[in-house]
Design a protein that fits this description.
195 residues; 3-stranded antiparallel sheet
């Protein structure tokens, strides 16, 4: 470990969050002299302090231990570049509109690449001001659709789906979007011309 590099990062993150050395020390149950020693590069935190330190400083623990935070490039706001992530542990659905490092349940999540062929049949009906979308897909506890998302140039409408419910969703009537669905077995699928 490069204690000098880590110390500079700790100081930078601490000041960025408006914390004093005493604030950090009190949160960790140590003396503020210890925090000062780290920031001067004269030592590194003990292993048992890293998880709490990463929470206090609001930083990824592995990057904090490396002494370098990888910054994401600014989001250009182009929703058509949406990327979906699903946590294998808890099932959380996360998405970004550009390159990002996404973590959930202590794991780094990888972007899910959508399939565009060999996908379930979809039926779309216009009802009132909505599209009523049904999927020819099982919804058992072992095999089901976990979410459906309609992605347009300026918005993402996402619906969670659950086993043993109907494989159907409603989206506001707006043309020109792409439909994504996620199957717990077959992964992410994209319909380029559903509407």
């Amino acid at each position: 470990m490069d204690c000098e590099k880590i110390g500079k990062l700790i100081r930078s993150l601490r000041t960025e969050r408006g914390l004093t050395q005493k604030n950090v020390a009190d949160a960790l149950g140590i003396s503020n002299k210890t925090v000062s020693k780290w920031e001067c590069g004269l030592g590194c935190p003990d292993l048992d302090l890293w998880p709490d330190l990463s929470v206090v400083l609001g930083a990824d623990m592995s990057q904090l231990m490396e002494g370098e935070i990888t910054r994401n490039r600014p989001d250009s706001g182009n929703i058509s570049r949406v990327r979906f992530y699903v946590c294998p542990e808890c099932g959380n659905v996360l998405f970004s509109t550009g390159a990002a490092t996404i973590h959930c349940c202590g794991r780094r999540l990888e972007r899910i690449e959508p399939a565009t062929d060999d996908i379930p049949k979809v039926t779309v009906e216009e009802m009132d001001a909505d599209y009523y979308v049904t999927f020819d897909h099982p919804m058992t506890k072992a095999h089901y659709l976990a979410f459906a998302a309609y992605v347009q140039s300026d918005r993402i409408t996402l619906h969670r789906l659950y086993p043993e419910q109907e494989a159907a969703v409603r989206f506001p009537t707006r043309r020109g979007g792409k439909l994504y669905v996620y199957c717990n077995i077959h992964g992410l699928m994209r319909y380029d011309k559903a509407f």
